Model the fold of this input.
Amino acid sequence: MTLFAKQSIKQTTLKQKVMSGALAGVLMTSLGVAAPMIALTQSATAAPADNLTAAKRLNKLLTNTKSMTANFSQTTKGASSGTFTGTMSVERPNNFRWETKSPSEQLIVANGNSMWVYDKDLEQATKQNVDSQVGNTPALLLSGDPSKIDQNFKITQPYSNKNYYVLYPKSDSATFKSLSMSFSGGKPVMMVLNDSLGQTTSIKFSNIKLNPSINSSQFKFNPPKGVDVINQ
Done:
């Protein structure tokens, strides 16, 4: 690969990594249970739920998701606009695999201790500490303690009769400003993430399988021979 070609690929890949890094932090610790925002029909009689009730309802939905596999379509609008498609797998506690297949290939794998970001075209693998990458994300949604969740996030349910939630982190160190989550039939189907870069990223999940058995090898990563490894 020529130096010019590699630099061009690097520019494209870095934009993708900016998006995926923020998403990985959110999705990994919430076990990818976030989904794109479903179009809602407003109803004058559908009053919003109070924050504690919303937290309890969302926690129940998340608790029922022990593992999940799905295809995804991720679209970002902002400085790093673009659409990416691929597959994902998540499993409690904190096992995460996010594999982008088009238009370029990128793999994010995490197992609770470390997270790998592998750019195939760039021939580069970055290893990051989960704590430093994730920061203040919806990990507490899995705690089973709605009052504790409410201390760290403002969780809203705009329409009490719809499984659609909007989260606002109270910490300034959070990797996102707001996260909208929608469920259909108990399954997370869509997510809309507004990040600290001023970008809006929507993720739509399809071919969703809830609580399947997933081989542990899906959450392990060994850098291929000849790949540049960067530790952060």
User: Anything to note?
Assistant: Helices lie at 3-29, 51-63, 130-134, 146-152.
